[in-house]
Each structure stands twice: as C-alpha cells, then as structure tokens.
Design goal:
By secondary structure, this protein is of the alpha/beta class. About 50% of the residues lie in helices and about 15% in strands. It contains nine helices and seven strands.
Amino acid sequence: MVPWSPELPGADLVTAGLADLEHGVESVPALLVSIGAPRLEALGVRVPRAMPDPERSLYERLRRDDADGAHSRYNALVRRLVSFERALACGQLGDADRIRRFMTALAAESREDGRVYFTGGATAVLLAWRDSTIDVDLRLVPEQDLLLRAIPRLKEVLQLNVELASPADFIPVLPGWEERSPFITRLGHLSFHHFELPAQVLAP
C-alpha cells in the first residue's frame, strides 16, 4: 500500500475507515472510504471489502444521528475525502517558495484587478508559523474565469494542492472582513491577502 503522511487532510478518517473495513465494521469512516474506493485504489491504496451502496448508507446513518445536520455533515465528510485524494495524488507539500511561485504564476494569468485571500495552512506558512502545508486554500474576489481555468493547470505544473475555500464558506463573517485581511503583496493585477485572522481561527 502506498504510504502517506498523517498530516494529509482527512488521513485520520481514511486510516480509521481502512481499519474498520479490514475488520468488517460498518462505521462512518468505513462508509466514507467505500465511497472513495475506486479513486483510492487508483492511487495505490488497497481498500479491503468496500461496502455496497455506501453513499445511501452513509447518509442514512448520519440522518439517524442528526436529521437536520445530515446533509451538511455528509458534504463535509466527502470534502475531506476529496482533499485527501487530491493531496495524495499531488504528493507535494506547499512550502513558502512553492506558494510564492503559485502567486506569481496566478498573477500572470490575470487581466483585471482582483484580490486573493489565503487561509489556513497557506497563511501559516507565509507567516513562518510552520514550514509547509498540504492544502493552499484561497478565495478569489471576484472569481475571474481566467483564474478559475488556470488554477487546475497551475496545480499540476507546481505540484501544489490548491482549493477554493475560506472561512466564509463555513461561518458567517462580519462585514468589513476585506479591510481587516492583512496585505501580503501585489503582483500585476492581483493583491494577495491573508483572510481576516479571527475568522480563520473560528472556522472549522
């Protein structure tokens, strides 16, 4: 089986799911891994005894536990699985140099003024709080079509896992967060910022 870092997003869920499948235990992690079995197998992860109809089974299990929150929790779990798969496929951690090369390349693609807000691990790396990150999460304002089309290509070229995600996707952010988001630099048409730090702390 291909090895992976425990720092990969969702690695705890995948590890637990594989162990439960090995022992025939139907759990939330086991059902999640069963959903991702085709992609995980293609990435070199052996999935023992994937469970049938895992999408329906997982949703029903979540609905029994919390009917009102089942949909949002299901989507959150699937996002963690997808992040793990993408990070495993990428195989590279994002250090400050790679993130800054991404910034330069992204700015070269822009033809109009805009802002890029980094969050999570990317903020921690650029502020020298840690050496590397699995995901580079960002928010584009506005969402320029040129940049949205360029990001998948830059991910492949730079071997960097980039996700469109920010605290605003998970929690209500206070008006004026843009002005409270620390400035990093301006390259071409793009201004780069850290998403408002208190919102980053509060976001899941």
